[in-house]
Amino acid sequence: MPCGPGQGKPLGMGEGTLYARRVKRWLDICLASVLLPAALPLLAAGAALVWLGLGRPVLFRQRRAGLRGQAWDMTKLRTMRDGPMLVGGAVDRARTPPLGRILRRAKIDELFQLFDVLAGRLSFVGPRALPPEVVVRMAPEGDPRLALRHAVRPGLTGWAQVCGGTLLTDPEKLALDCAYVRHVSLRHDLVILWRTVGVLLRGEARDEAALRRAQAET
Q1: CA atoms within 13 A on the CB side of 4
Q2: Dihedral pair phi/psi, residue 61, rounded to 5°
């Protein structure tokens, strides 16, 4: 049975449960340390495919907003041809060849982010790490929901990603991200990780029930 926000103790601004403040980070380090050695061969194979299929550069770096809104440069395998950038738009889709779509669908392009997890810039579960200009577009300046969204580390996967992902509008993503932050719990994180496997296997689908609950809290 899906676990949605509303289960677990609410997380306030700058505070939260012991799990959110301590245990979650410890689990991130342990899991990343186990997964990184297994991910290295996939990263090497993916880099070779990018070099052969798209040429150089093999890596792509982009500024992302993280915990408390602090920015850092995220590194990924390059999956798009050079050209104008429009995040999530038709231009990006047109620039992404079949090889890039395969790497994205399998999340191989994001395996470099395991290093960000170890460094404390990312968590396994949390709001998606977005470019600062995209975050600003999600809500008016000074909107308290943005501060709430940044109260936890961004994640490799998250509640918005498994409840619709790219099928959601920016306000819908923000509502789901804030609902996640308000109700961080180990149980919910485990459900999100499990549902992430389903997204990888079956693709994205909107979870209207979860969205309604999140919007009701806004």
Answers
A1: 18
A2: -120, 140
Report angle CA 13, 206, 129 to the nearest 5 degrees.
40
- Tens-digit pLDDT profile for residues 6-41: 444 444 543 468 898 889 999 999 999 999 999 999
Q: Which H or E run contains 62? A: strand 59-65
Residue 142's contacts (CB-CB under 8 Å, 6 or more residues apart) are none
pLDDT at 90: 45
Helix axes 24-53, 98-105, angle to 10 degrees: 160
pLDDT of residue 94: 61
Span of 6-10, 54-58, 131-135, 213-217 with lowest mean pLDDT:
6-10
CA distances from 195 to 93, 181, 215 (A): 25, 18, 21
Give 3-state DSSP helix, strand, coil % of the chain, rounded to 5.
Answer: 55, 10, 35
Give pTM, 2 decimals.
Answer: 0.82
Residue 18's CB: how many other CB atoms inside 10 A?
A: 9
Q: Which residues of 143-159 are buried (b: 16+ CB within 10 A; e: fewer)?
A: eebbebbbbbbbbbbbb
3-state secondary structure at position 133 = helix
* pLDDT, average across residues 169-182: 94
CA distances to 13, 103, 199 from 50, rounded to whole Å, are 42, 9, 24
Cis peptide before 57 (omega within 30 of 0): yes
Longest CA–CA span in the chain (Å) reads 49
